[in-house]
Design brief:
Layout (H helix, E strand, L loop, with lengths): L1 H16 L3 E6 L4 E4 L1 H7 L11 H5 L1 E2 L12 H8 L3 E9 L5 E12 L5 E10 L1 H45 L3 H25 L6 E3 H16 L6 E4 L6 E3 H22 L7 E8 L5 E7 L16 H13 L2 E6 L3 E6 L1
Helix pairs in contact: 5-6, 6-8, 7-8, 8-9
């Protein structure tokens, strides 16, 4: 008997010192025990209260402040239905007028032979945590609104820059100047389309590369070709989602290759085609393959010795990505960028 009393005393003392609130009922739901933490949360501790009186006695409401029917309370459901209810939230209005957002779980208590003999509710104060969550959500919404405004302004500025370059190109009497301005416009359009793709992406600022490149190449071929139609073929079987820091240099690299193909490759080709694909090599690296069906690279061609601005840019972008660039002829020019 003494051992039973000691165990009961120890259990009661332990429950009273928990920082989490604990309420225990008998099989009918009448409250038998309320520990100190639960009393602090409610501002009141009453025994013998049955489920019908839970809401009124302990001033319980839904989070939005509407009445919380007693039969829907977690502890009532554990008593009545014998179910376990996890991580529910509700509002407590204390007698002193302060409010607490509580979060808790309720479960039936079973005897050794499987009979329900009571129920227990554990709860904790989530007021500050929820206030922080709401403040964070509000800040994120403001940030999203500001980012949307910045994106809109950037898009407008890039569009304006392209228009100004186009205006200067039309006024220039130098073919070389017009060509340089046209190439600059093309590069700015690439950055603009990357920006537009990111603007449509929620989350971590990543872009599906193959889908983006296909859209970009369609625009480039439509913009830079007047008398011929160039087909764009996406041979990728599985797309790659990459951070914008990788997408921009890759997109600019493909822009340079496509511009070069359109300028030099298709003079005697009846069905000009640009094909690209993404795959993975044996080392696990992503390989972006670009090819055209034109006349191919000239004999002795090397990126290092090429004096064209586009090829110089390609080398620079490869260095930026820490990428390996291979090139060869196979029914046209082929470039493989491994990164």
């Amino acid at each position: 008997m003494s051992n039973d009393l000691e165990r009961k005393t120890l259990l009661t003392a332990a429950l009273s010192q928990l920082t989490e609130g604990v309420i225990i009922t008998d099989n009918a739901g009448a409250i038998l025990y309320v520990n100190a933490a639960a009393e602090r949360l409610h501002g009141v501790a009453k025994f013998g209260v049955t489920p019908e009186g839970y809401s009124d006695t302990f001033h319980l409401f839904r989070e939005d402040g509407s009445p919380y029917p007693f039969e829907e309370l977690p502890l009532s459901r554990a008593v009545r239905d014998g179910v376990t209810v996890l991580e529910e939230r509700w509002l407590i209005r204390r007698p002193d007028g302060t409010e607490v957002v509580a979060e808790g779980s309720a479960t039936p208590v079973m005897s050794a032979d499987g009979q329900k003999i009571g129920a227990v509710l554990t709860l904790r104060d989530r007021t500050l945590a929820i206030a922080d969550e709401r403040a964070l959500q509000s800040a994120l919404e403001v940030q999203k609104m500001l980012l949307s405004e910045v994106n809109h302004r950037v898009a407008n500025n890039l569009s304006l820059l392209v228009s100004l370059l186009n205006y200067q190109a039309r006024r220039s009497k130098s073919n070389e100047t017009r060509e340089l301005l046209s190439q600059t416009q093309s590069r700015i359009r690439v950055m603009s389309t990357v920006h537009a793709a990111l603007y449509r992406v929620e989350g971590e600022g990543k872009v599906a590369l193959a889908g983006y490149l296909e859209t970009m190449l369609d625009k480039i071929t439509a913009t830079l070709t007047d008398s011929i139609e160039v087909r764009v073929v996406n041979d990728t079987t599985q797309d790659r989602v990459l951070p914008v820091g990788d997408v921009i240099p890759l997109a600019l690299a493909i822009n340079e290759l496509a511009t070069n193909s359109l300028k030099y490759a298709f003079k005697d080709v009846t069905e000009p085609t640009i094909t690209f694909s993404l795959n993975t090599d044996d080392a696990g690296k992503t390989v972006l393959v670009y090819r055209d069906n034109g006349g191919g690279l000239p004999d002795g061609f090397t990126l290092k010795d090429s004096d064209g601005l586009g090829m110089t840019i390609l080398q620079t972008l490869g260095t930026q990505l820490n990428a390996k660039i291979d090139y060869y002829n196979d029914k046209g020019a082929v470039f493989e960028i491994s990164f």
